[in-house]
Each structure stands twice: as structure tokens, then as C-alpha cells.
Design goal:
Strand content: 35-45%
Number of helices: 3
Structural class: alpha+beta
Order of helices and strands: HHHEEEEEEEEE
Number of domains: 1
Low-confidence stretches: 1-20
Radius of gyration: 17 Å
């Protein structure tokens, strides 16, 4: 069986690699990953995988029709992050996933910000996994053009339930002629 890699090993290696990458950006100086007038990034899953996940776990009430349709066209399956809707004024934060547990909890996801129905950006430059470093938690829309998101920070030896700390990232929505853009402005350890 030389050259054959067991499927389970590939999945674990991929998950471990992604976990190591997802939260790495939180320990670096903030850099811009969202650009004005950008399209929703493609999820990377195929149409048949998206359709199957949508049938099994899609949430019709995850967000406004405009935001949900934009995510679906980019092959994300919408969901309500932490079972909540995040809308205030014309700002909306909606979850998009590419995988889910049998109970439909997202296994690979990002959070997308829309302003007045236009895509402004993602809260993380990389896809996130629950119970892993860099996974989004609490979301707060704090003003007409500001929001914060808390991210888990795991250290070696932390149990999946209990990250050693959390980082709060503050964002500003820049409104330009080209379109709204989500910009990370500050990180702060909150635990």
C-alpha cells in the first residue's frame, strides 16, 4: 500500500494545518485583507457539495436576501453565527460555512459584513474552525460604522472547551465611492 494515505489522516492533517494558520494573523500587526468593491470570496467547494450542505443545514433566516444570495453565489452556505442575527442600522454580519457537523454546527466558516446590502469584507483573512485558535465568538456592532469580534486564542494543551485567552478585534467600516470596506483597526487581549 505504498503511496496510499488513509483518508482520516489527510483530514486530520488538513485540520491541524488550518488550525495553526487560522489564528496566526491575530499575533501579527494588522494588515488589510479587505478591499473596496471586492466580491464575496469564493468558498472553494463545488456546486454539488454546496447544494448538499444547503439542503441539510442551510438557514433561510440567516440574513437579508441580498447578503444570503451573495454568499450562495460564492458557494457559501449561510448560517446564524452563535444562533443570532447581527444587524444594526444598515450593517449586517452573516455566517457562511463550507462544512458542518451532523448537527449542522459549522466546521469551516467565516463571517461576512455587509453595509447597505453591499459586501464590505470578512472578519478574518482565513476560514475558521470552531474550538480552534482564531475562531470567532462574540460579535458586537458598536456603532454606525464600527464593530468588534472576539476570537479564541488557544495554547498547546488547552482543552477544546477552554481557550487560554481571547482577543478582541475592533473594525471600522470605511465608506468610499467604490464601496464599503471593513478595516481591522485594533487588537486587544480581553482574557
Amino acid at each position: 500500500m505504498r503511496g496510499v494515505i488513509p483518508v482520516g489522516l489527510v483530514l486530520l492533517t488538513t485540520a491541524a494545518t488550518l488550525s495553526a494558520q487560522t489564528g496566526a494573523w491575530l499575533g501579527q500587526p494588522m494588515t488589510a485583507w479587505n478591499t473596496p468593491a471586492a466580491a464575496v470570496p469564493a468558498s472553494g467547494i463545488g456546486a454539488s457539495s454546496q447544494a448538499a450542505l444547503e439542503r441539510r443545514c442551510g438557514s433561510a433566516s440567516a440574513g437579508t436576501a441580498v447578503a444570503s444570495d451573495a454568499l450562495r453565489r460564492a458557494r457559501w452556505v449561510t448560517f446564524r453565527h452563535l444562533d443570532q442575527s447581527f444587524e444594526k442600522g444598515d450593517v449586517e454580519v452573516i455566517g457562511g460555512m463550507t462544512g458542518a457537523t451532523p448537527g449542522c454546527d459549522p466546521t469551516l466558516f467565516n463571517l461576512f459584513v455587509f453595509v447597505g446590502g453591499r459586501f464590505a469584507g470578512t472578519v478574518s483573512p482565513t476560514a475558521m474552525m470552531p474550538s480552534r485558535d482564531g475562531a470567532a465568538g462574540a460579535v458586537r456592532i458598536t456603532g454606525v460604522d464600527t464593530l468588534t469580534v472576539e476570537f479564541a486564542r488557544y495554547m498547546p494543551g488547552d482543552a477544546e472547551c477552554c481557550p487560554s485567552s481571547r482577543m478582541r478585534v475592533s473594525y471600522r467600516i470605511e465608506k468610499t465611492g467604490a464601496g464599503p470596506t471593513l478595516v481591522a483597526t485594533d487588537t486587544r487581549q480581553v482574557r
